[in-house]
Amino acid sequence: MTAPQTRSLVITRRFDASAERVFDAWLDPATARRWLFSGEGGEMVRAEVDARVGGRFTFTDRRDGQDVEHVGEYLEIDRPSRLVFTFAVPLYSEQYDLVTIDIRRLDKGCELTLTNEMSPEIFEEWGEQTRGGWTKMLGALDALLA
Amino acid sequence: MVEQEPAHLDAVFHALSDRTRRAMLRDLSAGERSIGELAAPFAMSFAGASKHVRVLETAGLVRREVRGRTHHCRLDAARLAEAEAWLRHYERFWTGKLDALDALLRAEDAASQNEGSRT
């Protein structure tokens, strides 16, 4: 599934809520429509989730009269610790990304790690907007790909 | 995914997808280099190094200047900054979503606590 060349963006976030609640917020359409693919000032006109491996989702957000569709397919569903799905916004790009959600229980709440993997051509890591930053960025990039 | 991409970003990401070219860029981030100097760490021929530099040039990441018999290369970081800005869209996108999720869960908690205090 994942090419060895794939690059990714990783974001980690802690929540006070339980792992189950955080996990369900991704798959329950009534909850997901309120936060997941809603844009600023947009209106969620369609939120459909077929929460099975191989099932698809469609979230359509109406922004300035334009319907922005977010679509994808669930590849792994392991409540409450792991969710893997593909994701695309056809309006912007035909390319599907791979998104992995890992949720770890903490004494209080949980920690979520989101990994957004992109096509092989896309690299990761960023530094300050300076030459020194670029040096660091490319060094980190190499370390990651080593 | 998240954002309309400038077409030339493809060329930038293609250029960055190769380890040798990334190492060359890192070298260039410290200052101007000749093709020979860029080739040295890789035990690479001038022609091989020149080919990599051409890919970097096409992506707008490097400028080459021929002085006498020497090809001098300089990093042009503007394109790199663009690629980085594009990546930041991803980061902002997901960070925004997780902020919204956190706010939603907290609002639910607050609401259920209020209900609890009324009963």
Q: Would you kindly provide a written description of the structure presented here, covering whatever features stand out?
A:
The complex is a heterodimer of chains A (146) and B (119). Chain A has 146 residues and is an alpha+beta fold. In chain A, 19% of the residues lie in helices and 42% in strands. Chain A has three helices and seven strands. Chain A is globular, with a radius of gyration of 17 Å. Chain B is mostly helical. Chain B has helices at residues 9-16, 19-28, 35-39, 46-58, 77-118, and strands at residues 33-34, 62-67, 70-75. A three-stranded antiparallel beta sheet of chain B has the order 1-3-2. In chain B, a hairpin with a 2-residue loop joins strand 2 (62-67) and strand 3. Chain B is rod-shaped and about 85 Å long. Chain A binds chain B through residues 5, 9, 11, 13, 15-17, 21-22, 25, 31, 34-38, 87-89, 92-93, 95, 97, 112, 114, 116, 118-124, 126-127, 129, 131-132, 134-135, 137-139, 141-142, 145, and chain B through 1-5, 10, 13-14, 16-17, 19, 22-23, 25-26, 29-30, 75, 77, 80-81, 83-84, 87-88, 90-91, 94-95, 97-98, 100-106, 109.
